[in-house]
Amino acid sequence: MPPILQRLQQATKMMSRRKVLLLVLGCSTVSLLIHQGAQLSWYPKLFPLSCPPLRDTPPRPKHMTVAFLKTHKTAGTTVQNILFRFAERHNLTVALPHPSCEHQFCYPRNFSAHFVHPATRPPHVLASHLRFDRAELQRLMPPGTVYVTILREPAAMFESLFSYYNQYCPAFRRVPNASLEAFLRAPEAYYRAGEHFAMFAHNTLAYDLGGDNERSPRDDAAYLAGLIRQVEEVFSLVMIAEYFDESLVLLRWLVMLARGPRAVQTGYPAFFGAEPLICVFQADKPMPQRGPET
Ligand SMILES: Nc1ncnc2c1ncn2[C@@H]1O[C@H](COP(=O)(O)OS(=O)(=O)O)[C@@H](OP(=O)(O)O)[C@H]1O
């Protein structure tokens, strides 16, 4: 082959190698931009999304006083821990039970402001087990307190209750071999209304929320509807254990919780740092007023 042709062939090969190299470099740059773009301020302009940019939303005031109704076996301990850490970080007062109430606010009795240790009154944060009583809590907590609770899918919750309270709840103690299946086959054979801790065997959530756990929606549908209405009226946020992460985002939006270190490290945008996409709570409801001291 004449030398001129050989040089031409080499030049063409070099060109294709350069093109391939450029193509690879181009692709890597685009992929890097897409990957990092979510954390850079110009990302929404280059890749417009259906949601409006969150930074255009004016920052809303967050609450510093929280009453968390810790229902039983609903992942409430995790929320309680988060709120205790929040209180510690901001040097806030946490309501602690009077020694005569043990570690809970004298549950299963109806909550009374007297169950709170005087050294922790008035509290900014309340997050231990109690049976809800709206008037008593409003007497205790400062104005502007936000009310939060958590619920869990009842069947999973009941399984958890059955296993945890098998030695405390008499209805469960009566069941041969502590068998959940045996209890579910004939619950009325083991349950006695009015016994101590009977509520763990029958509509615990209704009881914790201050309702009557003996009233069945089968016989009295209006009662349950009324109870649900009351819950909706009082609580600004009802967390759901099965949607724990989503619930935490909403809690973070409502209460001045700290930004999680994991969120900072990874830049994970949808968790503690950002506003929630779903806002199911009523942030603008009038806040309850505090009554006279007792
Ligand atoms: N993050 C998160 N998400 C979902 N579920 C969770 C979470 N954290 C705790 N759990 C489960 O909640 C059950 C314990 O609930 P509580 O902490 O409310 O228990 S207690 O009433 O204070 O004893 C207990 O349920 P069971 O394991 O079914 O018994 C825990 O496993």
Please tell me about this protein's structure.
There is one protein chain. This protein has 294 residues and is mainly α. Among the domains are: 109 residues, no CATH class; 49 residues, no CATH class. It is built from eleven helices and four strands; from the N terminus they run ααβαβαβαααααβαα. Helix 3 links the parallel strand 1 and strand 2. The C terminus is likely disordered. The structure holds 3'-phosphate-adenosine-5'-phosphate sulfate. The site of 3'-phosphate-adenosine-5'-phosphate sulfate has 11 residues, from helix 3 and helix 5.
Straight-line distance between termini: 107 Å
Write the element-wise H/E pattern from the N-terminal end onward.
Answer: HHEHEHEHHHHHEHH
Q: What is the quaternary state of this protein?
A: single chain
Largest sheet: 4 strands, parallel
Strand content: 5-15%
Radius of gyration from the alpha-carbon trace, in angstroms: 28 Å
The number of helical segments is 11
Membrane topology: Single-pass type II membrane protein
Main location: Golgi
Organism: Carlito syrichta (Philippine tarsier)
Protein name: Galactose-3-O-sulfotransferase 3
